[in-house]
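This section describes the prediction task in plain terms. A model, or a person checking by hand, is given the sequence of a single protein chain and must write out its three-dimensional structure as a string of tokens. No templates, partner chains or ligands are provided. The sample shown here is typical of the held-out split.
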Amino acid sequence: MKNITDSFLCLGYWPSAGSFGFNTNILATNLINLSIVLGVLIFFGKGVLSDLLDNRKQRILKTIRNSEELRDAAIEQLEKARARLRKVETEADRFRVNGYSEIEREKLNLLNSIYTTLEQLENYKNETIRFEQQRAINQVRLRVFRQALQGALGTLNSCLNYELHLRTISVNIDMFGEMKDIN
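The expected answer:
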């Protein structure tokens, strides 16, 4: 076994000065190498890292500005769309109201036209009834007149003799002559 001082776990182990060689103590050499690498990286990489961070920051800010501009444009378009929607809804309501009033007007016009037509048909019906009544009355009068005339002729023919017949004819001819003179 080795001595504890030779062990790589001992942090205080330093090789003797004046000689050049490899340090086999892994922990000590790694810490030194890491600190040197970190120092060089910080010294030289500080500018590169800050440039990268600045570029990243600028891209993020630019993205945020673009997003805000897009959001503002979207809000503006939304407001315009809402305004158009309100306008269209107003016009639709106006058309709906005008349409309903137009329908009501047309309905009233149609009802008035129907009532007028019904009145005309009622008048035509009444005129037709009066005409048919008058025709029926005239036919009845004509029949009554014919029957009366036939009865009178029958009575006259049975009561009249030749001499009375000639006298009646001559009286009628005289009356006809007088009527002709009056005109």
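For orientation: Residues 33-133 form one domain.
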